[in-house]
């Protein structure tokens, strides 16, 4: 035991630890940066970049690290690149670890739900901002355990640098053991030193995991307590103002009150707000939209009815250019969205700017709230990133909108802690934050339990009745469509079968297809 403690504090071995840490830092840091570059190349739409990154990955994952170390140390001098052993070891480690880091980053990015990206696009966020504010934080949180594991692997792989005479811990332990023949005590001491290093890496990993844990609402993270800073309360408090806001919402959305309130329709301009002509869209051999013609005027509420697969959702997404079109035209305010005058597609950055200029908001079937942000931040964030509002103004507007949909007491909760109806109401507040001219709603209640449908429909009803907002809504709620919509458009098989005033069309369908659909949906009960 005495010999073990002696070797554990021996300067000769401790210097080896320093070399090991230097190699680990060089390999981990360099691999992290190069791995990010490789991941970006593999995710790029520019195929040559993706191919180059994939070939690099195959080569470096398919050859032993010891050969890579020898190559960097002995082969590069033949072309005039001479590196010290420690630098050669760090470079070889970085180039090897980059392939594994790249796969970690890539899996984190593609693991983020596509709906999160669609929501960012619909809000007019540029690709770089979607990556920075939506995809990056969620992917980063998911890959922390894998990064911690790779840090340990990098440290263990650094022992192979002894082959090119780097005097790291393993090499010095072997040299010392050969000189003293006390193999057990020396290697036992070096093993404990390695465990201390890996233990420190594991502790850092756990601190980071705790710091980014979204479900940690009852306490501050250990990392934040080690590095004190001013933090907002983790537990939302309900104030008297919240109760007033909820009562006011209940009064506003009282069915009887809404029935008495006439729908406010802004005076229609000479030019319609949405013009769709000869719209075709296919996915492979499956033709989803087959020659759609539709016009929506300012202040009008149009309900899209039709069986599943009739093309309602695809039609809404083509209006906002979340889906490209095969042929035909879609004009918003007389201008195409997503295309140049000659018909060529625009880059996503330009499309994002056009969405903002056109004033199009969208509500999704599955809410698509940003999972890593609170209810209030889901509303305030896009106001900062897209509209350029200051944090104070963004929070002020978000607070007012969250209050309007009756969720002041849930403002600081994450989406996963809200019911489906509450999540959809937050999504409504987020869609309204930029004060859109047009609101597209893709079956906003189909993912909700029956008891939650009414609370969401009441909020949408208020927008139509009191705000006079232009809306195109795909829905199966026949009673809602009849009472709130100005016009109903019935779709089947990718075409418009029948359209007309809502009450007239639902009560007296002309086409047999619509009559059978209404009967199947229980129009009499509606």
Describe the structure.
The longest helix is centred in the N-terminal third of the chain and has 33 residues, at 11-43. 56% of the residues lie in helices and 12% in strands. β4 (327-332) and β5 form a beta hairpin. The protein has a 6-stranded mixed sheet with strand order 6-7-8-3-9-10, sandwiched between helices. A 4-stranded antiparallel sheet has the order 2-1-4-5, covered by helices on one side. It is built from 21 helices and 10 strands. It starts with a helix and ends in a 6-residue tail after the last helix. It has 2 domains: 2-226, MetI-like (MetI-like fold); 244-520, P-loop containing nucleotide triphosphate hydrolases (Rossmann fold, 3-Layer(aba) Sandwich).
Radius of gyration (CA) equals 30 Å
* End-to-end CA span: 84 Å
In what range is the share of β-strand residues? 5-15%
How many distinct folded domains? Answer: 2
Question: How would you state the average pLDDT, rounded?
Answer: 84
List the helices and strands and how they pair.
Elements: H1 2-8, H2 11-43, H3 47-61, H4 65-75, H5 85-110, H6 114-122, H7 127-157, H8 169-180, H9 183-211, H10 222-226, H11 240-252, H12 255-260, E1 274-283, E2 286-296, E3 301-305, H13 312-319, E4 327-332, E5 335-336, H14 348-358, E6 360-363, H15 375-385, H16 391-404, H17 420-433, E7 438-442, H18 450-467, E8 470-474, H19 478-484, E9 487-492, E10 495-501, H20 502-507, H21 512-520
Parallel strand pairs: 3-8, 3-9, 6-7, 7-8
Antiparallel strand pairs: 1-2, 1-4, 4-5, 9-10
């Amino acid at each position: 035991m005495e010999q073990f403690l002696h070797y554990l504090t021996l300067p000769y071995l401790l210097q080896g630890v320093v070399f090991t840490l230097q190699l680990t830092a060089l390999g981990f840091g360099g691999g992290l940066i190069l791995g990010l570059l490789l991941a970006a190349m593999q995710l790029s739409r520019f195929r040559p970049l993706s191919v180059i990154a994939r070939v690099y990955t195959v080569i470096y994952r398919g050859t032993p690290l010891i050969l890579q170390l020898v190559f960097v140390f002995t082969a590069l001098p033949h072309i005039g690149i001479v590196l010290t052993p420690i630098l050669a070891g760090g470079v070889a480690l970085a180039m090897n670890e980059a392939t594994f880091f790249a796969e970690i980053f890539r899996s984190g990015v593609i693991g983020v739900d596509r709906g999160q990206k669609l929501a960012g696009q619909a809000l007019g966020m540029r690709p770089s901002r979607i990556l920075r504010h939506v995809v990056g934080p969620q992917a980063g949180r998911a890959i922390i355990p894998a990064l911690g594991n790779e840090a340990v692997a990098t440290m263990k792989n650094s022992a192979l640098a002894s082959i090119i005479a780097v005097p790291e811990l393993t090499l010095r332990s072997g040299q010392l053991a050969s000189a003293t023949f006390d193999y057990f005590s020396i290697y036992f001491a070096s093993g404990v030193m390695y465990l201390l290093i890996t233990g420190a890496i594991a502790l850092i990993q756990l601190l980071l995991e705790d710091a980014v844990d979204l479900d940690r609402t009852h306490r501050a993270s250990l990392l934040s307590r080690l590095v004190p800073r001013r933090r907002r309360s983790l537990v939302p408090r309900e104030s008297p103002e919240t109760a007033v806001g909820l009562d006011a919402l209940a009064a506003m959305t009282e069915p009887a009150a809404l029935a008495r309130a006439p729908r406010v329709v802004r005076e229609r301009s000479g030019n319609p707000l949405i013009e769709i002509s000869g719209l075709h869209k296919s996915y492979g051999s499956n033709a989803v939209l087959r020659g759609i013609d539709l016009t929506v005027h300012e202040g009008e509420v149009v309900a899209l009815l039709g069986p599943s697969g009739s093309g309602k959702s695809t039609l809404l997404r083509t209006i906002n250019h979340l889906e490209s079109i095969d042929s035909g035209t879609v004009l918003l305010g007389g201008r195409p969205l997503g295309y140049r005058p000659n018909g060529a597609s625009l880059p996503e950055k330009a499309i994002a700017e056009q969405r903002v200029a056109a004033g199009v908001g969208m509500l999704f079937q599955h809410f698509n709230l940003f999972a890593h942000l609170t209810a209030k931040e889901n509303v305030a964030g896009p106001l900062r990133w897209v509209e350029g509002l200051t944090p104070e103004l963004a929070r002020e507007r978000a607070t007012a909108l969250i209050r309007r949909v009756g969720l002041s007491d849930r403002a600081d909760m994450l989406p996963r802690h809200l019911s489906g109806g509450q999540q959809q109401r937050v999504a409504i507040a987020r869609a309204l934050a930029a004060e859109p001219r047009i609101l597209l709603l893709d079956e906003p209640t189909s993912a909700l339990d029956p008891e939650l449908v009414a609370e969401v429909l009441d909020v949408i009803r208020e927008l139509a009745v009191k705000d006079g907002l232009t809306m195109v809504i795909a829905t199966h709620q026949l009673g809602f469509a009849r009472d709130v919509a100005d016009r109903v458009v019935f779709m089947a098989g990718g075409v418009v079968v029948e359209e007309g005033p809502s009450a007239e069309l639902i009560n007296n369908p002309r086409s047999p297809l619509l009559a059978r659909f209404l009967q199947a949906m229980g129009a009499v009960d509606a």
